[in-house]
Fold:
Amino acid sequence: MRQRVASSRRGFARSMRADATKAENILWQALRNRQLDGLKFKRQVPLDGYILDFACFEVKLIVEVDGSQHADSQGDAVRDRHFQGQGFRVLRFWNDEVEKNIDAVCLAILQMANARG
Structure:
């Protein structure tokens, strides 16, 4: 599923990885190195003009960790529909959900990954 990505987008994704939020770092520690049921997640992935917080391509799952700026975001709804149209499932968590209850977040991710059809 490799795509050509403009070097500017690739650089932006790289800078986002380096400047991750506390919640993104907490979730990444739980997802990295196939620690969650052997699933391979990537973070800050440029795809179709968007940058995905976390993506597991083997089960077509996108996980987003959002701050308050995403409340009632029409842009997020458009983006989610775009990827759902390609067969992805999208999970969104608030920063404080990840920070306060990482176990429940990981459980929700596992349940969605295991419901892959």
Summary: Residues 7-114 form a domain with the Endonuclease; Chain A fold (CATH 3.40.960.10). Helices lie at 7-18, 22-31, 74-84, 95-100, 102-114. The beta strands are 42-47, 50-56, 61-66, 89-94. The chain has one domain: 7-114.
